[in-house]
Every structure is written in C-alpha cells, then in structure tokens.
Amino acid sequence: MLLWYCNVILGYCNVIVGYCNVILWYCNVLLWCWIVIVGYCNVILWYCNVLLWCWIVIVGYWLVYSLVSLPSFWICLLYIYIRLYETTLNMPAKLLYHHVRQSLFCFVLSVLSHVVKQDSSHTIGVEFGSRVVMVAGKTVKLQIWDTAGQERFRSVTRSYYRGAAGALLVYDITSRETYNSLTNWLTDARTLASPNIVIILCGNKKDLEADREVTFLEASRFAQENEVMFLETSALTGENVEEAFLKCGRTIINKIESGELDPERMGSGIQYGDTTVRQLRQSPQAGSEQGRDQCNC
Q1: Rounded distance, CA 244 to CA 89, Å?
Q2: Cα separation of 195 and 185, whole Å?
Q3: 235: number of CA atoms within 13 Å, CB side?
C-alpha cells in the first residue's frame, strides 16, 4: 500500500515536471521571438541611420552649392529725407545695397567716386558711404548702405525696407538666374516698404553684350507689366549708373510736388523742415511742370 502511494506521488511529480518543461519550452520560444524582433529592429535602425547620413550629406552638398552659386543679384533701397531751404533741397538719401560678386560691388563704387575697382572684395556685414549730387537743380545727399546679398542675409536685409521711398532692383543681364529672382525681390519691396515706393529696374553689365542672357525687350516688358521704370547700366564703364539714382530721386521729388506722395505720412521715408515740402505741395502743378522739364522718367 505504501508503495502504491509512493508511485502516485511520483506520478504527480512527473506531471508537474512535464508542465514545467512545457512552460520552459514556451519561455524559450518567446525568448527566441524577442531576439528575432530585436534583431529586425536593429536592422531597421541601421537602415534609418544610413538614410539619415545620406540625407545629411545631400543637404550639406546642397547648402554648399547654394552658398557658392548664388545669383549675382542685389537690391538697393533708397531712403529719402528731404529738407528744403528756400530754393535748395537738401535730400539725404539712404541707399541699401546687397550683392554677391565683385562686379556688382563696382556698381556701388562707381556711383560713390566714379572709380571702378575690379579687385574689390565682397561685402561682409554692412558698409556705408555718401555722396552729394544735384537732382532737378536741388542738392541731394545720397547715404549708401552696402550689405551682403547672399540668401542667408536676406532676413537681415529685409529689416532695412521700412520707410523706403525708393528702390533699385538690379539684376545681371548675363545671368538668367538673377533675372528670374526679380519677382521675389519686387514682392519684398512692395510688401515691406512704403506703399508709394519708387522702384527702378536696372540691368547691370551692359558692357558684356556678347554674354547677354536677358534681352532688353524682355526686361522692359517685365518692367511695364509690373509698373516700374527700367534702364540698363554698366558698373565697369559707369554708363547709366548715376542716372539710375538721379532718376529715382527726380521721380520721388515729382511725386511730392504733385501731391501723389504725402511726406507727412508716417513711414513715407521722407523727413523735411517746417517750411519746406509744404510749400511744394501748395503748388503741385508748378512743381510737376518743372519736374517734367528736367526728367524723362
């Protein structure tokens, strides 16, 4: 009898051991499944790392290419401050340039000193210069702010638009890319500057006729469609460089004299004395006739 009980107990023990073996087997299966899942996750993670590094390399090459091959294009903003003493109009005009290459920087130098330096270095940050000229028999002081024109400085350049009364949009006639960028710069000028801003489109490098990519007719049509004035210039020879600034100044003065531009409006970009431009605004017709006689805008 005792032996029978021992066999029963031993049988139960064998059953328990069998269940334990089954449980252990399932645990081994789960462990192997977990190892396989972790392995697949590691493979996926490795592929993700490879894709990430490929993306970093592509973006890096794109940034380097963008910084090296930016279009030879800059925009100059013209801030006009008018002071009229009797028959002389002292008008400090603040001009803003940002450019990319040496040939464009010559545009600034030629209007400042009538001297073209072909070995001029690129602008880093902001440079300042000034020059006094005569516009419609009035003394005008041009204050020129020359800034870098790379795309990475665009957010800084946009801060100079406020209060601009005039702007010169300059593109390279030998570079189709600079011409295609005009729409963006024109939108910035009209969005961020004063509503009555005077805009002149300038096609630079007129002396390189053999390398021309943008025709005069195409650019003049663009100017006509966007209601801006247009001329072609050459920073190397100085052709029409000073005329671009004089034309912008004459147009602004004519707008003030005709009453189209209100210098008292905040943000107009115009500063004047108590007895100055008010006298012009009281006789707009006379001022307009004088402006037309001296300006072919």
Answers
A1: 19
A2: 15
A3: 24
Asked if residue 275 and residue 259 are part of one domain, the reply reads yes
Structure tokens at 120: 């001029």
Interval 213-226: pLDDT, tens: 999 999 999 999 99
Per the structure, the count of domains in the chain is: 2
CA distance linking residue 171 with residue 179, whole number of Å: 6
190-249 confidence digits (pLDDT tens):
888 777 888 899 999 999 999 999 999 999 999 999 999 999 998 888 888 888 888 887
Q: Are 107 and 170 spatial neighbours (Cβ–Cβ below 8 Å)?
A: yes
Q: For residue 1, tell me if it sits in a domain.
A: no
Containing 170, the helix (H) or strand (E) segment is: strand 166-172
CA dist., res. 245 & res. 78, Å (int): 9
Give the separation between CA 182 and CA 186, rounded to whole angstroms: 6
Residue with tokens 């460089």: 241
**Backbone phi and psi for residue 154, each to the nearest 5 degrees, phi listed first:** -65, -40
Identify the domain containing residue 31 by its residue range: 9-69
Q: Are 52 and 197 part of one and the same domain?
A: no
Give yes or no: residues 211 and 106 share one domain.
yes
Q: Is residue 4 part of a domain?
A: no
Are 109 and 203 spatial neighbours (Cβ–Cβ below 8 Å)? no
- In 3D, which of 148, 150, 154, 134 has the Cα closest to residue 93? 134
Are 196 and 286 contained in the same domain?
A: yes
